[in-house]
Amino acid sequence: MTARHPPRPLVITRPEPDNQLWAAQLQALGHRTLSLPLMEIAPSTHPEALAALTQALAHWPCYRALMFVSANAVRYFFQHPLVQAAGIVPEALALRCWSPGPGTSKALLAAGVAPELIDAPAADAAQFESETLWQQVAQQVQQGDRVLIVRGAEPGGGAQPAQGTGRAWLAQQLALHQAQAVFAPVYERCPPLATPAWLEQLQACLAQPALWLFSSSECVQNLRLLIRNTPWDPAQGGPWQTHLALATHPRIAQQARALNFAQVLESRPALSDLHRCIQSLP
């Protein structure tokens, strides 16, 4: 089923290459999209991150499972020179691979991981996150186990997880089961630079009322940072009350409300659910 001609374009805020992927999928359903990546992803080269990964790999393959926090975690882990030097090949993995959602599962399959090794939330889960993943994998964990959590790091390194995130929650559950989470940061996330080209993209997205799709709290926070003390700052009025936001998690929706959107909607992150939510708009 194709979409009715929507009155608002959809602003895709995901980092590349996922931005183009989401845009192509939504365009195939009849939606008009605009691109404004609000996060940049790059390999983590900070000495602290490299040391953490080196130490994590020293225990290979004595892990109960590998948990990948995102599709980027999959891509940057298997492409990492240290991982390749250790002879770790996705097609030859014998460890369970934990995935928080369909995007990460697809990345694991594309990398060559056998489908029978992938554990993920049920397809009808209310959310794709660590909490729903844990429901599927908790029975695997035994006392003394180690689980390698492959994740991103803040610019400048940092080997420990940020508090309040799904990966920190998962580490707590493992500890309660007398198991250990080991963190392997393989990529960095940072806001995009407010270059003239990026500002031109922003102005194009704000030129008419649009529906902004947010699948990351960090992307919302980056947008707030980039427009601070500009004519687009909601503290100075800004244009946001003519725009809508669609968030894929309640925590993301909470962040988006601070931008004074006319309305903030919530949807599961599955493409079919996003499509139905967009279709329901007048």
In short:
With about 280 residues, this protein is α/β, with parallel strands linked by helices.
Any overview of this molecule?
There is one protein chain. The chain has 282 residues and is of the alpha/beta class. It has two domains: 10-39 and 192-279, 3-Layer(aba) Sandwich (Rossmann fold), CATH 3.40.50.10090; 42-189, 3-Layer(aba) Sandwich (Rossmann fold). The protein is 37% helix and 18% strand. Strands 3-8-7-4-5-6 form a six-stranded mixed β-sheet. α3 (71-79) packs parallel to α5 (102-111). It is globular, with a radius of gyration of 20 Å.
Task: Furnish the topology, listing elements before pairings.
Elements: E1 10-12, H1 18-28, E2 33-35, E3 40-43, H2 47-57, E4 65-68, H3 71-79, H4 81-85, E5 96-98, H5 102-111, E6 118-119, H6 130-137, E7 146-153, H7 166-176, E8 180-190, H8 196-206, E9 211-214, H9 217-227, E10 244-247, H10 250-257, E11 263-266, H11 271-279
Parallel strand pairs: 1-2, 1-9, 4-5, 4-7, 5-6, 7-8, 9-10, 10-11
Antiparallel strand pairs: 3-8
From the 3D coordinates, which CATH architecture of the largest domain would you assign?
Answer: 3-Layer(aba) Sandwich
Radius of gyration equals 20 Å
How would you characterize the largest beta sheet?
A: 6 strands, mixed
Low-confidence stretches: 1-6, 158-164
Major beta sheet, strand line-up: 3-8-7-4-5-6
The CATH topology of the largest domain is given as Rossmann fold
The amount of beta strand, in percent, is: 15-25%
Level-1 CATH class name of the largest domain: Alpha Beta
Count of extended strands: 11
Mean pLDDT: 90
- Distance separating the two termini: 18 Å
Structural class: alpha/beta
Order of helices and strands: EHEEHEHHEHEHEHEHEHEHEH
User: What is the number of domains?
Assistant: 2
| Overall shape | globular
Helix proportion of residues, in percent? 25-40%
Number of helices: 11
